[in-house]
Every structure is written in C-alpha cells, then in structure tokens.
Write a structure and sequence with these properties.
The protein is an alpha+beta fold. Among the domains are: 5-146, DNA methylase specificity domains (Adenine-n6-DNA-methyltransferase TaqI, Chain A, domain 2), CATH 3.90.220; 214-353, DNA methylase specificity domains (Adenine-n6-DNA-methyltransferase TaqI, Chain A, domain 2, Alpha-Beta Complex). Helices cover 33% and strands 21% of the residues. It contains ten helices and 22 strands. The protein has helices spanning 56-60, 108-124, 136-140, 149-188, 218-221, 265-269, 315-324, 327-330, 343-347, 356-396, and strands at residues 5-8, 13-17, 29-36, 46-47, 52-54, 72-75, 83-86, 91-92, 96-101, 143-146, 201-202, 209-210, 214-217, 224-227, 239-246, 255-256, 261-263, 281-284, 290-294, 299-300, 304-308, 350-353. The strands form seven sheets. Strands 2-9-6-7-4 form a five-stranded mixed β-sheet. A five-stranded mixed β-sheet has the order 14-21-18-19-16. Strands 5-3-8 form a three-stranded mixed β-sheet. A hairpin with a 6-residue loop joins strand 11 (201-202) and strand 12 (209-210). The longest helix is centred in the last third of the chain and has 41 residues, at 356-396. The model has no long low-confidence stretch (mean pLDDT 94).
Length: 413
C-alpha cells in the first residue's frame, strides 16, 4: 500500500505574484526579457517564448519578478487554472502565481503534475464577480497528499515521457509548417519557382505576376464557399450526437482535430450548418480573422466559412494562400459592436491562380509535409489523452508504480 502524507500546499512551496510594468512607459517594454501573460499559455507543458518582452528597467521598477527555469506558473484570474513550466527565465503579470517547491518533501516537476490534478478543485474555489480569481489563501490552504520523493519521481518519469514525446512532435510540426510557408512564399510571392528564369512578369490586379498566371475571385475557382450555422439550442434532439461542430474559437488550433461540441444527424438536417470534408480551409469571420484547416469531417457555426472543392487549386494551396493574404480580409472588416466580414466578401476576394504545371509540382512537394503534420497532430492527441487518463490515477495512488523498474536519475540532473 502506498503511503501518502497529508499536508497543505502552502507548507511545501512558495507562491510568487507577478506584475506589469507601466504600459505607458516605453522604456519598460520591447526589451530582451520575456514577460508571460495568459495569451502565452498554450497547450504545451512549457513556455519558452512570449508575445511581449520587457527591459531590465521595466523589471527593476515594477512588481514583476524574474522566474527560474522549472518554476511553475498558474493563471489565477479570468482564465483560471492554465499551468505551464518555465523552460527559460521569464517575468510574468499579476494575473498569475508562480509556484516553487521549498521543501525536501516535494519534487518540483511532481508539483506540476500535482497542480494539473488539483486544477478542477482550484477552479471550484475561485472567487470574484466579473472574473473568477484564485487568491493566495486558496493555494496556501489546498489539501495535498504526498508520497515519498522516490515515488514522486517514478510518477513524474512516467508522465513526463508522454510530455517529452508531445514536445518533440510539436517541434517537428512547427518546422514542417514553417517549411510549407517558406516554400509557398518562395514560389508564389517571390516567384522563385522552378523554371522562373524563363518567364516574364506582367501587371495584374494584385501587382506583377508571371505571364500565363491569372487572378480570380475565390467563388470562381472554389466550388464550395460554405457559411456555418447553429442548430436550435432548445431542441435536445439536435445536440450530443456524433457529428463534430465547431465555434470560431476552435480555429486558434493549428489544425482542427475535434469538435467544440457534437450534434446529431437531425441537428444537421434541420439547421443551416453544413457538413464539410477533411482539409476544408476554415475562416473565422467575426472578431479576429483566423484561418485554420480541418483534419476531420465537421460542421461549424455562423461565424465560420469553409472553402473546399476546387478543380484547380489544392486545399493546401488555398490554405497557405489565405494565411499569407489574411490582410485582404482584415482591411474589409466593418461593424461597431464587433468587427466582421461576410460570405460575399470572401467569395469576391482575389486569389492568385498559377499555371497548372506549377501547381502540380507544388502539390507534389507540399502534400507530404501536410500529411506529416496531420499524422503528428493525431499522435499528440492520442498521447495527450493517454497522459490525461493516467495522471489522476497515478497522483491519487489508484495505479501503483512501486514495483516498476523506472530510472529516475535523469530527474536529478
């Protein structure tokens, strides 16, 4: 039987509150020191880059703190309970707490998995009216049960194996995505495609393009420009089915692999939403313009437009084209309460149509990259599911790893 020692989180680690240098003082910002806010909390275990940076002056003259590698950050206001580990020294804002073990009874990396296990309990204890908030007292008084350090390291070794695989796959995905974007730019922005030396450029609606290439409206080269819809919420027969249905926020994912919710066949039949095939190019048209690509058959709400079924252009070409030309949509947004574009704007947006032989050569080069990205994303999805299934069973002691021969020495490095 595994022995757990009951204790309070506050007796085992210290809590550090972040801060924000004055945004009006330009001397505090755009320096070399990473500054973490909630927008930097991704699905990965680690934070290794940030959208904003501060200067040494900003650090020294504000309440923010410089964290160490392996310190843990938890979001504590608004979006409560997002957790990351610092892969580099960072500063952070006041909507977060940093956690650092100060006890010989608590392994720092085990603390990360322990907090992942406890996050739902913390969310239930959040207070506040406009924004849910975790306060320091809540963290201090959190009941935890700790096995021995050796046992903690065994659990950590099992779970971190999954996270390392996910991290490695994520790095490969980023490289493949960057390669695809670079190839597109070389061929269709800089016009450095194979054989370009023999082609002359001519003027067009989108500037100079190679002779024999065309500029078309999207609706003239993409057969399906589909606006989504939402089945009636009050009809329970429309919901909790097996058909993936997404909201526009799902497009923040590099590729869409699952639904936000799931609808029934009847919900599909009796609403304006449409079933779209894998590799549909997805465009959010309300709020921020975001472009993603589906890797499954799905439906979407009325804030999403899908592009698919072109006899000329591949879905991979359309996706890369839309991403690099997203400014064509942002410049046409309108609305006072919430900025948006509409289906008509998308259908009549211009798109570059290269010669068919160039497109064919491009597709032979690019499709294997997209297929690799898809495969790695689904591998990560499965690894994440397995890790999340094991985590509560290991942390609670329901699965005993005492007899497993696990080398934990790497955790001491």
């Amino acid at each position: 039987m595994i022995r757990f020692n009951e204790t309070k989180l506050g007796k085992q680690c210290e809590f550090i509150l972040g801060g924000t240098p004055k945004t009006s003082n330009q001397e505090y910002w755009n320096g070399s020191i990473p500054w973490v806010s909630v927008v930097d909390f991704k699905d990965n275990k680690y934070v290794s880059s940030t959208e904003k940076t501060i200067t040494s002056k900003g650090l020294n003259e504000s309440n923010t703190k410089l964290l160490k590698v392996n310190d843990i950050i938890i979001s504590a206001r608004g979006t409560v309970g997002k957790i990351v580990v610092c892969k580099i020294p960072v500063t952070f804002n006041q909507s977060c707490y940093a956690l650092r073990s100060n006890s010989e009874n608590l392994n720092q990396e085990y603390l990360y998995y322990l907090m992942k296990y406890k996050v739902n309990e913390l969310r239930k204890k959040a207070i506040g009216g406009v924004f849910d908030t975790i306060v320091k007292d809540t963290l201090n008084d959190l009941d935890i049960a700790l096995p021995s350090i050796d046992y903690q390291k065994k659990i950590t070794s099992v779970l971190s194996t999954y996270d390392k695989l996910i991290e490695n796959n994520t790095r490969r995905i980023e490289i493949l995505e960057e390669m695809a974007q670079r190839i597109y730019k070389d061929w269709f922005v800089d016009f450095k495609y194979p054989g370009h030396e023999n082609d002359e450029l001519e003027d067009s609606e989108l500037g100079m393009i190679p002779q024999g290439w065309e500029i078309s409206n999207i609706k003239d080269v993409v057969n399906k420009v589909v606006l989504g819809g939402t089945p009636a919420r009050k009809n329970k027969k429309f919901w909790n089915g097996k058909i993936p249905w997404i909201k526009s926020g799902k497009l923040n994912d590099l590729r869409v692999l699952e639904g936000t919710e799931y609808i029934t066949e009847l919900g599909l039949e009796k609403s304006a939403t449409k079933l779209m095939p894998p590799r549909t190019v997805l465009i959010s048209i309300t709020g921020a313009i975001i472009i993603s690509l589906s890797e499954i058959e799905l439906c979407a709400n009325q804030s999403v437009i899908g592009l698919y079924d072109s006899s000329i252009l591949s879905q991979e070409y359309i996706y890369l084209n839309q991403q690099i030309n997203i400014h064509q949509y942002t410049s046409k947004m309108s609305g006072s309460a919430q900025q948006h574009i509409n289906k008509d704007i998308v259908q009549n947006t211009k798109i570059l149509v290269p010669r068919i032989n160039i497109l064919n050569d491009f597709d032979k080069l690019i499709k294997p990259l997209f297929n690799q990205i898809s495969s790695l994303l689904f591998k990560n999805k499965n690894l994440t599911s397995t890790r999340d299934y094991l985590l509560p069973k290991l942390i609670s002691g329901k699965v005993d790893v005492s007899d497993l021969d696990i080398d934990t020495s790497i955790l001491d490095e």
